[in-house]
Design a protein that fits this description.
The complex is a heterotrimer of chains A (440), B (184) and C (330). Chain A folds into two domains: 1-59 and 298-313, no CATH class; 60-277 and 314-439, no CATH class. In chain A, 80% of the residues lie in helices and 0% in strands. Chain A has helices at 3-20, 24-40, 43-56, 61-78, 81-93, 99-112, 118-135, 140-151, 161-169, 174-202, 204-207, 210-214, 218-222, 228-250, 256-273, 279-313, 315-325, 330-347, 350-367, 372-385, 394-403, 410-433, 436-439. In chain A, helix 17 (315-325) runs parallel beside helix 19 and helix 18 runs antiparallel to helix 19 (350-367). Chain B contains five helices and two strands. A two-stranded antiparallel sheet of chain B has the order 1-2. In chain B, strand 1 and strand 2 form a beta hairpin. The longest helix of chain B has 37 residues, at 13-49. Chain B is elongated, with a radius of gyration of 21 Å. In chain C, strand 1, helix 1 and strand 2 form a beta-alpha-beta unit. The longest helix of chain C is centred in the last third of the chain and has 35 residues, at 235-269. The radius of gyration of chain C is 20 Å and the shape is globular. Classes of the chains: A mainly alpha (440), B mainly alpha (184), C alpha/beta (330). Chains A and B meet through helix 1, helix 2, helix 3, helix 4 and helix 15 of A and helix 1, helix 2, helix 3, helix 4 and helix 5 of B. The complex binds sodium ion (2 copies). Residues 345-346, 386, 389, 392-393 of chain A line the site of one sodium ion. One sodium ion (NA) binds at residues 345-346, 386, 389, 392-393 of chain A. Chain B: It is a multi-pass membrane protein. Chain B: GO terms for molecular function: transmembrane transporter activity. Chain B: Residues 36-166 form the Tripartite ATP-independent periplasmic transporters DctQ component domain. Chain B: It holds the Pfam family DctQ.
């Protein structure tokens, strides 16, 4: 068997182990270890590479931002800043058809300007928006799907961990990547709003529970209105956070990498100022932050080792040769590439996909005449689709575990997020076809 | 991120003790995250307002990430909080009571061997870091020894292997309980 | 012909200045030399370029442990394991001619037991020397004297932070990928860098003033072969590999010259203003610094002193006069 064949078989084995329910990090590490051992016929070498992966795999300042963004998310959640943002959006938008869904998207868009990881958005708004939507007659699966779907905004609108990682891998300015993410982020948010309105209008049974549809919707109008001073009071903390993070970034007080740390600290100050934290709650916030972070980081360690194994098998080189030899033009390459990323998105986490594909694809893309900033945004949107696709969709997992009620099944949330996947694919096509949207 | 779907019996005292110990180790990692945040803020403030940046923050944060992971990993393993795709498992569960436990047992054995191997693989570099007083940073600017960071990997992996072994024993226990009490 | 399998690799892509000559010189030259020697041996190359197999933190471990047989080793990242190789970083203002640095380190790594042992102790055999072109300052303000950097912030990661000591300038951490944004947003006001490295990042757009302060060309690392692997090779192949290594050094020097020239042409065309710091100011700057070599000398004992003295003797032999004679301070 050639190395490539062995490599492909090992990818198949990984799929199987993940589907069977092995812890994904363990599956990645095991397949990687076995792969290196088989491919090089050298047990010691496999041990050496594994040791290197353990020690250096996530030893990067960028990865230190993950726990910090997660911490910020939890702090914003516990100090009700997320809830207040949602409340205001709800008050302003609930008269619209599907208004609470739109409010979720709107609140997520604003929140995206302070967080750099989508799971933070997913965790915050699951607690805030899902109960509220369910109370007002939305189907739980739709509510959960909306939260999961709109959480992807967190990593497209700056600051964004994925844009940072791409910038580093493709050697592009992170500041430019951030600016480039703005328009597609806005497009995506608009697309989400549009799909919610369309669904509420034309297939309300997907959005609302049957009991709700039988009732008149007058009760919504009967709800008390929110007064302007109250709106302002609820908006102050999130506005402070957004201004602080974006202002600090663009006035040069701190770097995109530091935004996680400074933002978390600002969120801590707000939480303390609002008297939302006692020692016990603070410890709970830190512990939850740790639990979520270690889950992501060990995946990154494992994915790093796994991609080394693929390199030993010669898969990246083979793909490179295949693309060059296949006579695929720029468009053909982009289609194949995006399909590959979407496929990987089904089984791997976002950062791992970037780590695996960008070093191979970016030089090829550049050779074919792509602007690497444009290519990066396409990549990141395609990667983010994977947050919502089964079997491994981390935003869905986060919503599911944050719900913690066991009533809404994982499959139902995946299904609820499907319309949002559709919107993402549509936006993906638009931004791929119209580079001017990104690079001006 | 998902809790196990399989109902847990009351944990044995031994498991509770282990869980307690691992939670304390994980708590060190938790505090470490907080410390990194403070370090970054201090560097930003120092650089902008005092012309006194803290050198090496990037490298210290980078090294710390690894330490944090391996401090928290054992508790996460024992809690069953590492991500897995469990829909097929649940599908199987409705058909057979034993198969999920058998799979869990196999996975736990693999996890034990794997993290055992990580600990063994990481040991030579750890020993050599001690012998050669390996450091990171820049001579004359700031340096930190790598030994503690490497040691955390060895201990974290070994403890994770132990946690997987405990999970494996539990799966085995359930497997035999189910066997003894055939499906009605 | 007897075919020999060689795994060759790097943490950086093949267009990188330190990797370029591996693919364009080392590989073809070894093939050619073996063919000319009678064709008794041939090489099956297995390329692992571009960091797919390991990243920059692991270039030493990769060759030492045989993850690749031949690899680019950035000793600049190995301050702990291979401290002696970093002598140039602790002796700034010595020399801006990168070709001289290549020649000196090719020579000294063969002749000086301390430098040679730096490689063999790590289970490696050194084949060719890798360097940077001269480090200078790219900033959004002009610099006419050492006074001009007082109360400024410049990106100066790692060892290069030393080069700003006592000048009143605040060193800011960073990397090639962060400089542009850092300067654009005001996190820093410029960076310490070299032409061939900085040009692709387009930092000149936000930092249009290049001041030739003359921190100098740095010995970056080497291309090395795993010692166990090397010892197992037939003597003819060993000799050919060594010979190919020398040719690779030369090709690397040419490529750095070519890339630097092209980079300067391009940057100047894009509006980069180049100014040479007067010699007197260079000397003043060099003498403003504390003895930055002292901690390194102290930590590495006699061997470090021998390396530093040999390096400065070689500079002198080439009529190069450093702005500060660090060797005189031992
Ligand atoms: Na964001
Ligand atoms: Na997915």
């Amino acid at each position: 068997m050639s190395s490539i064949t062995i490599g492909l078989v090992l990818i198949g084995v990984l799929f199987l182990l993940v589907l069977l329910g092995m812890r994904i990090a363990v599956a990645l590490l095991t397949v990687a270890f076995a792969g290196v051992w088989i491919l090089r016929g050298n047990f010691d070498l496999a041990m050496r590479l594994m040791s290197i992966s353990a020690y250096n795999g996530v030893a990067n300042y960028l990865f230190a931002t993950i726990p910090l963004f997660v911490l910020m998310g939890h702090l914003v959640s516990i100090s009700n800043v997320g809830k207040d943002t949602f409340d205001v959006a709800e008050a302003l938008l609930r008269r619209l058809l599907g208004g609470l869904g739109i409010a979720t998207v709107a609140a997520n868009t604003v929140f995206a300007a302070v967080t750099g990881v989508s799971i933070a958005s997913a965790a915050v708004f699951t607690k805030v928006a899902v109960p509220e939507m369910t109370r007002h007659g939305y189907r739980p699966a739709f509510a959960a799907g909306t939260v999961a779907g709109s959480s992807v905004l967190g990593m497209l609108i700056p600051p964004s961990l994925l844009l940072i990682i791409y910038g580093v891998l493709a050697e592009q300015s992170i500041g430019r990547m951030f600016i480039a993410g703005l328009v597609p982020g806005a497009l995506l948010a608009l697309g989400f709003v549009l799909i919610i309105v369309l669904m509420a209008r034309f297939s309300p049974h997907l959005v609302f529970t049957s009991e709700h549809l039988q009732r008149s919707s007058d009760d919504i109008h009967a709800l008390p209105k929110m007064k302007l001073p109250q709106v302002l009071r609820k908006l102050v903390p999130i506005v402070i956070l957004v201004v602080f993070v974006l202002g600090g970034l663009y006035s040069g007080f701190f770097t995109p990498t530091e935004a996680g740390g400074v933002g978390a600290f600002a969120a801590l100050l707000i939480a303390v100022a609002r008297r939302s934290l006692d020692l016990k709650k603070w410890w709970a916030v830190l512990t939850q932050t740790g639990t979520i972070s270690v889950g992501i980081l060990i995946l990154l360690v494992a994915a790093g080792f796994y991609s080394q194994m693929l390199a030993v098998a010669g898969i990246p080189t083979a793909i490179g040769h295949f693309v060059q030899g296949s006579g695929l033009g720029a468009t053909g390459f982009l289609i194949v590439y995006v399909l590959l990323v979407l496929l990987l998105g089904m089984i791997l986490d976002s950062s791992s996909i970037l780590l695996i594909v960008v070093p191979i694809a970016a030089p090829i893309a550049q050779g074919l005449g792509f602007d690497l900033i444009h290519f990066g945004i396409i990549t990141v949107v395609a990667v983010e689709v994977g947050l919502l696709t089964p079997p491994f969709g981390i935003s869905i997992f986060t919503v599911h575990s944050a719900l913690g009620d066991g009533k809404t099944r994982l499959e139902a949330i995946f299904a609820g997020a499907l319309p949002f996947v559709g919107v993402m694919l549509a936006v993906l096509i638009i931004i791929a076809a119209v580079p001017q949207l990104i690079i001006g | 991120m998902q809790a196990d779907t399989i109902a847990e019996p009351d944990p044995s005292p031994l498991r509770r003790l282990l869980q307690g110990g691992l939670n304390i180790i994980a708590a060190v990692g938790t505090i470490w995250i907080f410390a990194i945040m403070l370090l970054i803020v201090a560097d930003v403030v120092g650089r902008n307002f005092l012309a006194a940046p803290i050198t090496g923050v990037a490298e210290i944060a980078a090294r710390s990430v690894v330490a944090i992971v391996f401090l928290m990993l054992p508790a996460a393993v024992l809690n069953g909080s590492l991500v897995r795709a469990d829909f097929l498992l649940r599908l199987v569960e409705s058909g057979s009571e034993r198969l999920p436990h058998a799979l869990d047992f196999v996975f736990a054995v693999v996890g034990t061997l794997l993290f055992g191997a990580v600990a063994v693989a990481a040991w030579p570099d750890t020993a050599s870091a001690w012998r050669t007083a390996e450091f990171f940073g820049v001579r004359g600017v700031w340096t930190l020894p790598t030994f503690p960071f490497r040691l955390i990997i060895v201990f974290g992996s070994a403890a994770s292997a132990l946690a997987f072994a405990v999970l494996g024993a539990e799966s085995l226990g359930r497997l035999s309980t189910v066997k003894a009490r055939p499906h009605e | 012909a007897e075919a020999i399998d060689i795994q060759i690799g790097s943490s950086h892509p093949t267009n990188n200045i330190w990797v370029y000559a591996m693919q364009t010189a080392l590989q073809p030259e070894l093939d050619r030399l073996l063919k000319e020697a009678g064709g008794k041996y041939s090489i099956n190359w297995h390329e692992n370029y571009g960091g797919t197999l390991y990243k920059f933190n692991d270039t030493r471990a990769a060759v030492r442990d045989g993850i690749v047989d031949i690899g680019m080793v950035g000793t600049v990242w190995e301050g702990s394991a291979m401290p002696l190789q970093n002598v140039t970083y602790f002796t700034p203002f010595a020399n801006s001619d990168h070709v001289a640095v290549i020649e000196i380190f090719d020579k000294l790594t063969e002749e000086l037991p301390e430098l040679k042992a730096g490689w063999t102790d790590q289970n490696m055999v050194h084949l060719s020397s890798l360097v940077t072109d001269s480090y200078d300052i790219y900033a959004n303000f002009p610099i006419a004297s050492v006074e001009d950097v007082r109360n400024r912030r410049l990106n100066a990661p790692g060892t290069s932070a030393n080069w700003l000591a006592n000048t009143g300038c605040t060193p800011v951490d960073g990397a090639l990928t962060t400089y542009y944004t850092d300067i654009q947003t005001g996190v820093s006001e410029g960076t310490l860098s070299f032409a061939s490295g900085i040009q692709p990042t387009r930092v000149y757009e936000v930092a249009p003033h290049l001041t030739r302060v003359g921190f100098g060309s740095m010995y970056f690392g080497g291309i090395a072969v795993n010692k166990g692997f090397y010892d197992g090779l037939p003597p003819e192949v060993q000799a050919a590999l060594k010979q190919a290594g020398k040719l690779t050094s030369r090709k690397h020097g040419d490529y750095v010259t070519q890339r630097t020239t092209a980079a300067m042409t391009e940057m100047v065309a894009a509006g980069l203003q180049v100014a040479e710091l007067p010699v007197a100011e260079k000397e003043k700057w060099a003498n403003t610094l504390p003895n930055v070599a002292a901690p390194w000398l102290e930590a590495n004992g006699e061997a470090a002193a021998a390396v530093l003295k040999a390096y400065f003797a070689e500079l002198k032999a080439r009529d190069i006069t450093p702005a500060r004679d660090w060797a005189a301070e031992i």
